[in-house]
């Protein structure tokens, strides 16, 4: 954002010019390329996330997407939509804002610290089943990246639906590291496989939190990084298949991950259980993580019987 | 609304013009002719302060109704496609605003509509951005200080074509370099729907110690007018031509 002439502090009240709803700001949650997101409370006392921006068109695009997916039955795709309005600041400037479900979660990066390796696969499965639903609705996420993922209740949720694009159109927004075009692995057309590629890069980033550049031979760089990652060893084949365009949709990829996880869960040795992403964990946390993980793996197996 | 044809000049430079007419004036002229001027200032990855004179980048784009950005080499690809996209949206919005004013009266813009209707208009703008035809003339400053940045420029242009060709609307690209001692600008790539591997371009370069940005922009504008007749015939039916896109 270029100019931020207004000042929104905790306790201040934003009133909508059109709908008249008011929201009390609790705190700032974060800021992005096109706005600031606050935690707020409505006059009914409900807690929401509220985004104030400058670029009214872009904000409306996001709202259009949120509205669309609030209607999708069953699975929740992105935060649900609550309200959209304009706020006139004391200096009489108009700022578009919208209100959505507050997702109480931790960023994926922090969440993975100290978790067992199996979480890599579990996150992939969760992401892929959300993508499966989104793709079935005729949309592609587009700008899928680690920064757009929060984990709440051990479930991955995506925020920032600004890049969601109707299937067959051009991807409008992307981040190079996750973009298959950047890696010379395909077009920037919104196709389900575009998102699948981004999933593999989110997995690679778990191994290489600082990411890496493509260098002179993008394809070789990717292969080398994948081969050098012990964390991704179990999924290496799936990831390679995805890169070679051999996986067509999210469901297929999800099933591949499920079968790897299930195979491992059967003959897991205690030594393997001890391998943590980081080792400074108290016994208590470890125990909790183990039981949680057992539950999730179990959940996954039930899940795969369903399909 | 029928998708129209957008025309843009994309100027890539790293310095201040120091020869010939004022590029800001030429950019304003281009805008009048229905050609948007976007400018990207390319910094060295090691450069840690904004060099003097690059303010010009912003003024040229402003006068040309376009978008400007100053970036490090390594973000050039992503910036080139973003700037082009933003400028497209901006132009389409300008046209839509004009139509709104005709229907709803003076001073009515997208921003002033109630959110519900604004959402619908934004959807229309998005649709037009996907389906309109686009012509981009890339004008590259190849003066001495730009030389080592040219491989990155090539890569960025390939990437631009990758982004835009994912749209359903058609694209035409051409690439010109300046300065050229005789003709001010040199044609590097003739109008083409795809900027594939740009082998050999920028290999024979003349670099004097001067940067005639203004004259180069003017020549670029002529180059637009000299597009093959078959293209221009199609333009004749284009409603946007009359509104002075
Ligand atoms: N619905 C939400 N619930 C909780 N936190 C959110 C929500 N939406 C955004 N945030 C926080 O705000 C930050 C910026 O939001 P984002 O929508 O990504 O901005 P931008 O699209 O401008 O980059 C996010 O990184 C996240 O921390």
UniProtKB/TrEMBL annotation, chain A:
Residues 23-287 form the Protein kinase domain. It is an enzyme of class 2 (transferase). The keyword Transferase applies. Keywords: ATP-binding, Kinase, Membrane, Nucleotide-binding, Serine/threonine-protein kinase, Transferase, Transmembrane, Transmembrane helix. GO terms for molecular function: ATP binding; protein serine/threonine kinase activity. This is non-specific serine/threonine protein kinase. It catalyses: L-seryl-[protein] + ATP = O-phospho-L-seryl-[protein] + ADP + H(+); L-threonyl-[protein] + ATP = O-phospho-L-threonyl-[protein] + ADP + H(+). The keyword Membrane applies. It comes from the Bacteria. The chain crosses the membrane at residues 285-306. It comes from Halobacillus dabanensis. Its EC number is 2.7.11.1.
UniProtKB/TrEMBL annotation, chain B:
Transmembrane segments: none annotated. Pfam families: VWA (PF00092). Gene3D superfamilies: von Willebrand factor, type A domain. Residues 1-92 form the VWFA domain. InterPro entries: VWF_A, vWFA_dom_sf. It comes from the Bacteria. This is Ca-activated chloride channel family protein. It comes from Halobacillus dabanensis.
